[in-house]
Amino acid sequence: MMTAPSLRTLPAAYQEYARLRREMPVFHDAEADVWIVSRFDDVRTVLREHRHFSSCVLGQDSFEIRSPVDGSVLPAEETLLASDPPRHDALRMHVGRLFAPERLVACEAAARRELDRVIVQLVQGNRFEVVHDVCEPVVAAVMASVFGLDTCWRECVAQWLQVSGQCNARSRPASLKARFDAMLDDIWQAAEHCPDAGLGVFMAACHRGEVDARHVLDLTVTLLKGGADTTTYLVGNVLALLAEQPGLVSDIRRDPTLIPALIEASLRRDSPVQLTVRVTTADVELAGHRIPANSRVILLLGSANRDETVFGSEDEIHLDRREKSHLAFGAGPHRCPGVALARMQGGVIVQALMTRLPAFRLVPEHAREVGLRALCGFDRMDAEFLVRESNGATAGPAKNLLPASDYRNRQSER
Ligand code: HEM
């Protein structure tokens, strides 16, 4: 039976967050020598105050990026993630161009096309795996579209996403560095042959001398890392939420226009990116605490988004209430540039699963949560169809992800 504890281990972390917010909202962990910030207002202040809280510590464990032109290495402070304004603004401007509204329309079309293909395959079997069978191919199709690459690059982009996802992981296979370097070679080739859209935008900036070849690679890799697993985690979290609160399934079934509200509620409640980090550039005061210069500050986005003084203490989700704006995508200069894309992708995938597939249930014993405190989501989530016609086809009304009570009834009917 699908209940919250069988799918999730996070509630323990959420209780710990609540204790931090209550008792020590700005806390110095002396052993690790880091400051931990857990309340909404304080987290948002730090994200916005780039002068006192620098991003220069981000991406420190990334592999180096070498120029395909002269072999020089890109210094960390020149990467998108680790740079601060004004240098950051200049890089970020190029990324923004990839997410212009007309590009998003093309990306949505790519997502829907890929979902059409995926769904035809899914309904031929008895069960499917949400991450591998649904999210990964759709995300690859969308990222290829973001980069302005046609379908012959799809397999390549899927591999880039896989390598980038592994770069985010704690334990990396020994072969990863070689695969990362091969990916950089591929990206450069793709960018050189790209028309105006996507990677062509970065190349045009390179030809104008606004960035160099290393930046073209860094911007692309950062997009891949940012988009690799986050949307997949979002989709898994939404499905887990529906399994935990079956009433929402009926709401969505009755009115699919509530899906964006469901996505937003999930993003806030189970934020795929649970934390980020900054370093102080001078002695600063935060909520009455003096934090010395050069201190690492961990910002608990997942805690800020559950701050009861902002969002109330009720754990139930009500889709008819407008969610207050949350910090799942960060804030300030580094706020996620993929916000609209993530919402669109998450929405079309959830909608397809809920309205175009026959009834299915998640298989809790085969759900695997990401084993990292910094991320929240599932890297495996199995589902099985509930009804089969005698001719072998799955059938029945779109009663997807049956609520526990429905599922219980159906079991006893068998
Ligand atoms: C549910 C999905 C997503 C979530 C929850 C998410 C969350 C975040 C957060 C919290 C940050 C800010 C980190 C910080 O300030 O330290 C960020 C940055 C970033 N995200 Fe996302 N993201 C998502 C999807 C995407 C997608 C789909 C892309 C690209 C296709 C993307 C690309 C990026 C990039 C490039 C940055 C770095 C921006 C910068 O440093 O200026 N993200 N994301």
From TrEMBL:
Top-level taxon: Bacteria
Organism: Cupriavidus laharis
Family: Belongs to the cytochrome P450 family.
EC number annotated for this UniProt entry: 1.14.-.-
Stretches assigned to coiled coil: none
Protein name (database record): Cytochrome P450 YjiB
Alphabetized UniProt keyword annotations: Heme, Iron, Metal-binding, Monooxygenase, Oxidoreductase
GO molecular function: oxidoreductase activity
